[in-house]
Amino acid sequence: MDEDTPRDGDEREDDRERGEQAAPDGEEASPTPDADDDTVTAEDIDIRESIGPNGSPEETADDVTDVSLDEVVLDDDDGDSRGLFDDLLSGEPIFENKEVLRPSYTPHELPHRTEQINQMATILVSALRGETPSNILIYGKTGTGKTASAKFVSQELESTSQKYDVPCEVEYINCEVTDTQYRVLAQLANKFIEKNEAYIERELDRLRDLRARAAESVNELTDTEFDSVAAVEQQITELEADFEEMEAVPMTGWPTDRVYTTFFDAVDYNERVVVIMLDEIDKLVEKSGDDTLYNLSRMNSELDNSRISIMGISNDLKFTDFLDPRVKSSLGEEEIVFPPYDANQLRDILQHRSDVAFKGGALTDDVIPLCAAFAAQEHGDARRALDLLRTAGELAERGQSDTVEEAHVRQAQDKIELDRVVEVVRTLPTQSKIVLFSTILLEKNGVHNINTGEVFNIYKRLCEEIDADVLTQRRVTDLISELDMLGIVNAVVVSKGRYGRTKEISLSVPIDETEAVLLSDSRLGDIENAQPFVQARFDN
Ligand SMILES: Nc1ncnc2c1ncn2[C@@H]1O[C@H](COP(=O)(O)OP(=O)(O)OP(=O)(O)O)[C@@H](O)[C@H]1O
Fold first, then answer.
1. What would the DSSP string read from start to end of 338-365?
2. Is the pLDDT of residue 433 over 50?
3. Which atom of ligand 1 is nearest to the CA of 111?
4. Residue 107 lies in a domain
5. From CA 204, how far away is CA 224, in angstroms rounded?
6. Residue identifier of the C-alpha nearest atom 4 of ligand 1
7. pLDDT class of 94 with cuts at 50, 70, 90
């Protein structure tokens, strides 16, 4: 903040600003019609203060004049100037602290996960005794609190290790982002290099100070690990050399074995127990096989000073089928399952969070039970329950309602569902999009009980129209099954008696929104008038 400009406590300063803000460019400042209206002007000042890059009221007032905020000030009928944000700000907000409902927030309490947390702690406590904890594999469906619980336990572990001065560290890696052996090892290497450098700097400070004191009087060395100033000197030289040698791993470009060796040396530089938390470990295996896990799991036999233990987290247990049997048995030394939450448990979780997130009395009684019930249907996903509650609150806020009602939750459920559909449809491969578009065309033209042959006929014509490869009917049937699995269409096999069996397909998603998403794809957008294709179906 600018030192010359006091920020608070000076009403005259505020008055002067009010005048300046209302004055058009170049004109002398004069009081605005609402300058006497305390409420509005107070808000004005708040807003302007928050605009200034340095937060200085004077500077802000100048800025406001410079950019001519007048342009974005809307005059209402009474001639009162209402800023773009005034109405939104004046509504009593429903939320006390919305951040608490976001996925990035790590809760301090995790109801209904005590058992799993205790299991983890029982295994990891060996790290605090300087022993190597067993590797742990944690699995359970999405939103069952795996990451939140694992992070909670690691924070506790690290803080206890500091309390008792035991060298124990946890490194968290999200394998959805860091998904190759190179990146995992590089990230770990760089973390430990950083820690080692910080350690060396601290040591050097200590030793240089000791050297200076010992040069005055050798008695300073009593009770230290050194018997002469020369020994201190030598230790300093060695540490300086170590510091020089430490070279961070670049994000690409080194051979993997060099990255591995760098990580190995960095982690073994000091005595410590390291827990490596690999979240979404299945993504790593899917993307780059089990080499990383193999290398990490055999490291302990070669490390001299340190020990590592792996904590893998996954929502898909099938990935272990792709592991080398040795890796599989080593990784799965201990397995902890996170079962889905039921509606009552979700209710508790939501209640805990909502106490902090919402203003008192902002939620009507049905809101939390309904959010919990919806999310329980979705395989007991706490993330979904929290999303629903937050979105319902946002919808209520947007609708200028004082409370969140059952209807807001229902709207939120539709909105989240639609967002999901849009995202799934948007990211479909082009061929699947064409198949889906064919189904939509048929439905839009009033065709019921659509069968695979009908979809295939339209599909072929659409492919010709946009110059896409035409797949076989068999492949198209497979794509329909995939769409079914994604919940976009519903395909049921029906028996046609002596004519065999066929699939009857219907759309499971809102037709207009889905069509709009498909047409926003530049390739499908080329299909201008699809009517003739559907007509052609009847000609076949
Ligand atoms: N018992 C609980 N108490 C409070 N909040 C919880 C609880 N369980 C989960 N949550 C919250 O639900 C959200 C999802 O949890 P988390 O990320 O831990 O799930 P996950 O099982 O790791 O899911 P994924 O496999 O998709 O990563 C987070 O915001 C988390 O804080």
1. EPPP-HHHHHHHHHHHHHHHB-TT-B-T
2. yes
3. 1
4. no
5. 15
6. 110
7. confident
Residue in this structure with the two tokens 């639609």, named with its chain if needed:
418
**Are residues 358 and 459 located together in one domain of the fold?**
no
Residue 401: its pLDDT value, please?
Answer: 87
Query: pLDDT of 300-332, one tens digit each?
Result: 999 999 999 999 999 887 888 888 888 888 888
Q: Which residues form the domain of 22? A: 11-90
- Check if the beta carbon of residue 523 is closer than 8 Å to that of residue 476: no
Q: Whose CA is nearest to atom 1 of ligand 1?
A: 110
Annotated binding site for ATP, which residues? Answer: 144-148, 341, 353
Q: Which of 114, 108, 106, 121 is nearest to 158 (CA)?
A: 121
**What does the pLDDT average to over 396-416?**
90
Q: Is the pLDDT of residue 536 over 60?
A: no
Calculate the alpha carbon distances from 64 to 412, 437, 493 in Å.
38, 51, 66
The residue from 299, 328, 357 where one domain ends is 328
| CATH code (residue 191) | 3.40.50.300
385 and 437 co-located in one domain: no
Examine the domain organization and report whether 418 and 433 are in the same domain. Answer: no
- Closest to 149 (Cα-Cα) out of 103, 104, 113: 113
Please work out whether the CB of residue 142 comes within 6 Å of at least one atom of ligand 1.
Answer: yes
Centre of ligand 1 to C-alpha 381, Å, is: 8
Q: How many domains does the chain have?
A: 4
Q: Is residue 109 part of a domain?
A: no
Residues 280 and 409 both lie in one domain: no
207 and 315, same domain (yes or no): yes
128-167 pLDDT, tens digit per residue, is 988 899 999 999 999 999 999 999 999 999 999 999 989 9
Do the domain assignments include residue 334?
Answer: no
Instruction: Please tell me the distance between residue 118's alpha carbon and the centre of ligand 1 in angstroms.
Output: 17
Is 205 a domain residue? yes
Residue 121 has pLDDT above 90, yes or no: yes
CA 144 – ligand 1 centroid, Å: 5
